[in-house]
Design goal:
The complex is a heterodimer of chains A (472) and B (169). Chain A has 472 residues and is of the alpha+beta class. Chain A contains six helices and 31 strands. With 169 residues, chain B is mostly helical. Chain B contains eight helices and no strands. In chain B, helix 1 crosses helix 4. About 10% of the residues of chain B have low confidence. Classes of the chains: A alpha+beta (472), B mainly alpha (169).
C-alpha cells in the first residue's frame, strides 16, 4: 500500500471534521485585532525607547574614550538631560567641556523636584546636572567654567554645596560664590560677590558684589589659593552684565565696560583708567575681548534698537552686531582683524581660536519681546529676554559656522576658555539622542504620556499572560 | 473596505469547511479545530487586502493555519508521549477493515510532533510536493524530507500494525 492509501485514509479522517462555526463579526474582530497589534507594536517601540535611559547612562559612561592630547572634547551635539540625571557635586566626572542652561527640559520642573537645572557635559562625554532653584544664565554670571574646565564657579545655592550664610562686607551682604572642583565634587564658598569672570590662569575669580541699585559699585578679585578677596578700584556706574569685564591674556589687566565708558584696571597695582567713552550702541565684546597680543579690545556695535524708540522682537532678532576694535591703552578706535557681524539680541565673545577666528555666543530674543524706551530693567542677556542661543565661529574669511548643536530650549552656554580650539568632539549616539529628545518632547507632559503608555502596555501584557495561563 | 469584507466573507464561507478538515487533521479535536480555523481567519482578516493582492489566498491561509497550530503547541508545551502504543491487548486491525485503519491512523497522528504531523498532512492529504510543503512550513526541503521520514517512522513505531499501510516512499 503506497502513499495514495495513506492519503485516502487521511481524507476519510478529515471527512469527520465538523465545519467550524464562523461568527458574523469575524471581519470586524480581525480588523480590530490587527489595529491592536499595530498599536501595540508602536507602543512597544516607544516603551523600549523610554526604558533605554535606564540602561544608556551606564553604557554611555563606558562608551566614550577619554579625551587626550589634541582630541576634540567639546561635543558637536548636545541633547537634553534626563530626569534624574546625576548631579555634578555628588557624582563628579572630571573636567567639563561645556555648560548649558535654558528653559523647559533644561530648566527642569518642580514636578520632579528641581526647577533650575543646567547641564554640564564632561570631557569624557558624560552628562551631569547642576541643580538649583530659579533661572540660570550660564556663562553670563550664574555658572562659569574655569579656563581648564576643572572648576565651576556658581551661585552658592547649588545642590550639594554647603552654603554658608553671607558674610556682610563693608556695604552690607555682597553675595557668595561657590567653587566646585569637578574632579572630586569638593566645594567651597567664598564671600565677596557673585562670579563674573575667571582669570586666564584659573587661579583668580572676579566677583561682582550685590548692589541694591543697577550700579556696579565695585568688583572683587578672589585668590582661590588663599581665599583672599581684594577689592578693585571702585567703578560706580550702570553696567550690562553680559558684557561687563574681560581679563587680558596675561591676567594683569582687566577691561571693564559700563554703559557709558570703558575702563582698564591694573590688577596688581590696583589702578584704574578710563580709556574711552562709549556710545549707547557700543559694548565690550565679552570675556574674550582682548586680542591675543593684549594690545586691542574687541567691541560690538549694535546695529539697531539703540535710538531710544520701541523695538520689537523682529527688529531685535535681525539687528546686526558688528565687531570693531579699540586700543587697549588709549581707547582709540583702531583697525583689527575683520570679522563678520553677529546677529540678534546680544552677543558675547568667548575668545579666539588659534587661527584667529572668534568663538561667539549669539542670543536671540524671546518670543514677543519688546524693548521699551527708557526701561530701567532692560538687560540684553537677562534670562527672560533671551529666547534661544547659538555658539558660533565667526571666521576671518567672513563666513560663520555653528560650533555646537544645542537643545532647542537652550538659552545660555559657556565653554572653558582653554577649549575654544576643541570643538567637534563626540556626542551621544543618534539612538540615545532620539530617546533624550523623545523624553523632552512636550516637556514635562511628554514624560507622563510615556509613563501612561508604559503602564497600558504592561497592563495589556499582564492580561495576555493571564489568558494564556488560563488556556493551559 | 466593503468590497474587501465581502470578498473575505465569501472566502470564509467557501473555504471554511475545507479549512476545518485541515484543522481537524492537525489537532485531532473538533473544538480545537474550530478554534484554530477561527483564529486563522481572524489573522487573515487583518491583512486581507494584501493577501488577495498577492493572488490566490489559499497558500497564505494555509501557512497561517499551520503556523498558528505549531505556535499553539509551543505555547502549551504539550508533549507527545514518547512510548509506543501498548499493542499487546489490541487486536491487529484487518487491513480490509477501513474503520479500524481510520481510527488507528487518527490515534497515531495525534501522537506525532506537530511539525511532523503538519508535514504528513500537507504531503499526503493535500498532496503537495515536498517543495510546496517546505514553502508552507517555512523551512528547507531537506527539513521536510526528514520530518516526513521521521514522522512515518514514528507512525510505524506508534502503530506497528499499520506497517503495510505506511509503506510509502
Amino acid at each position: 500500500m503506497g502513499d495514495g492509501r495513506l492519503g485516502q485514509v487521511l481524507h476519510r479522517i478529515a471527512a469527520d471534521a465538523r465545519p467550524a462555526r464562523l461568527g458574523p463579526d469575524l471581519w470586524e474582530r480581525g480588523r480590530r485585532r490587527r489595529r491592536r497589534t499595530v498599536a501595540t507594536a508602536v507602543v512597544a517601540v516607544l516603551v523600549v525607547l523610554g526604558a533605554a535611559p535606564v540602561v544608556l547612562p551606564r553604557v554611555h559612561a563606558d562608551g566614550y574614550a577619554p579625551a587626550g592630547g589634541d582630541r576634540p572634547v567639546v561635543p558637536a551635539r548636545v541633547y537634553p538631560p534626563l530626569t534624574g540625571q546625576a548631579g555634578v557635586v555628588e557624582h563628579p566626572t572630571g573636567p567639563a567641556a561645556l555648560v548649558v542652561s535654558g528653559d523647559r527640559e533644561l530648566r527642569g520642573s518642580d514636578i520632579w523636584g528641581w526647577e533650575g537645572r543646567s547641564l554640564l557635559v564632561a570631557r569624557d562625554g558624560r552628562y551631569r546636572l547642576a541643580r538649583t532653584v530659579g533661572e540660570v544664565s550660564a556663562g553670563v554670571g550664574d555658572l562659569l567654567l574655569s579656563p581648564d574646565g576643572r572648576r565651576l564657579a556658581a551661585m552658592p545655592w547649588l545642590e550639594g554645596v554647603a552654603y554658608q550664610h553671607d558674610v556682610a562686607g563693608p556695604g552690607g551682604p555682597q553675595g557668595v560664590t561657590a567653587v566646585v572642583e569637578l574632579g572630586t565634587g569638593e566645594n567651597r564658598t567664598y564671600p565677596g560677590g557673585y562670579p563674573l569672570a575667571w582669570s586666564p590662569d584659573g587661579d583668580s575669580l572676579l566677583l561682582r558684589p550685590a548692589t541694591e541699585d543697577s550700579r556696579l559699585g565695585g568688583l572683587n578679585l578672589l585668590d582661590l589659593a588663599t581665599g583672599r578677596v581684594r577689592a578693585l578700584p571702585r567703578i560706580d556706574e550702570e553696567f550690562r552684565l553680559g558684557n561687563l569685564a574681560a581679563f587680558s591674556p596675561d591676567g594683569a589687566r582687566l577691561a571693564v565696560a559700563t554703559v557709558d565708558a570703558l575702563y582698564v584696571v591694573e590688577t596688581a597695582g590696583m589702578t584704574v583708567r578710563r580709556i574711552a567713552t562709549l556710545t549707547p550702541a557700543e559694548r565690550l565684546a565679552g570675556p574674550g575681548a582682548w586680542s591675543p597680543d593684549g594690545t586691542r579690545l574687541a567691541m560690538w556695535t549694535m546695529g539697531d534698537c539703540e535710538d531710544g524708540t520701541t523695538c520689537d522682537e523682529r527688529r531685535l532678532a535681525r539687528r546686526a552686531i558688528r565687531p570693531g576694535w579699540r586700543d587697549a591703552t588709549t581707547g582709540a578706535v583702531v583697525d583689527g582683524p575683520r570679522l563678520p557681524a553677529a546677529r540678534g539680541l546680544a552677543a558675547r565673545l568667548l575668545g579666539w581660536q588659534g587661527d584667529g577666528d572668534a568663538v561667539v555666543v549669539e542670543y536671540q530674543p524671546e518670543a514677543g519681546l519688546t524693548r521699551e524706551p527708557d526701561n530701567p530693567r532692560w538687560s540684553e542677556t537677562d534670562w527672560w529676554a533671551v529666547g534661544s542661543v547659538t555658539l558660533t565661529e565667526l571666521r576671518r574669511d567672513g563666513s560663520r559656522h555653528r560650533l555646537v548643536d544645542l537643545p532647542g530650549s537652550a538659552l545660555f552656554v559657556d565653554v572653558p576658555a582653554g577649549l575654544l580650539d576643541s570643538f567637534g568632539g563626540p556626542s551621544p549616539s543618534r539612538v540615545e539622542g532620539a530617546v533624550r529628545w523623545l523624553l523632552a518632547l512636550w516637556w514635562p507632559l511628554g514624560q507622563f504620556v510615556l509613563l501612561l503608555v508604559a503602564a497600558v502596555v504592561a497592563g495589556s501584557g499582564l492580561r495576555r499572560w493571564r489568558r494564556r495561563t488560563r488556556r493551559r | 473596505m466593503d468590497a474587501d469584507r465581502q470578498s473575505f466573507e465569501a472566502y470564509a464561507r467557501e473555504r471554511g469547511a475545507a479549512l476545518s478538515r485541515h484543522a481537524y487533521l492537525l489537532t485531532g479535536d473538533h473544538h480545537l479545530a474550530e478554534d484554530l480555523v477561527q483564529q486563522t481567519l481572524l489573522r487573515v482578516a487583518g491583512r486581507w487586502r494584501r493577501v488577495v493582492a498577492g493572488g490566490d489566498p489559499d497558500p497564505y491561509v494555509r501557512r497561517v493555519l499551520y503556523h498558528q497550530h505549531v505556535s499553539w503547541w509551543r505555547r502549551r508545551t504539550r508533549r507527545v508521549a514518547e512510548s509506543p502504543l501498548d499493542t499487546a491487548d489490541r487486536a491487529v486491525p484487518d487491513p480490509a477493515d477501513a474503520v479500524a485503519v481510520h481510527l488507528a491512523v487518527r490515534d497515531a497522528l495525534a501522537r506525532l510532533a506537530p511539525r511532523q504531523r503538519a508535514a504528513i498532512v500537507l504531503r499526503y492529504y493535500e498532496d503537495l510536493s515536498e517543495a510546496q510543503v517546505a514553502e508552507t512550513l517555512g523551512c528547507r526541503v531537506g527539513t521536510v524530507k526528514s520530518q516526513l521520514r521521521d514522522g512515518l517512522a514514528r507512525l510505524r513505531v506508534l502503530a506497528p500494525e499499520l506497517a503495510r499501510l505506511l509503506e510509502v516512499r
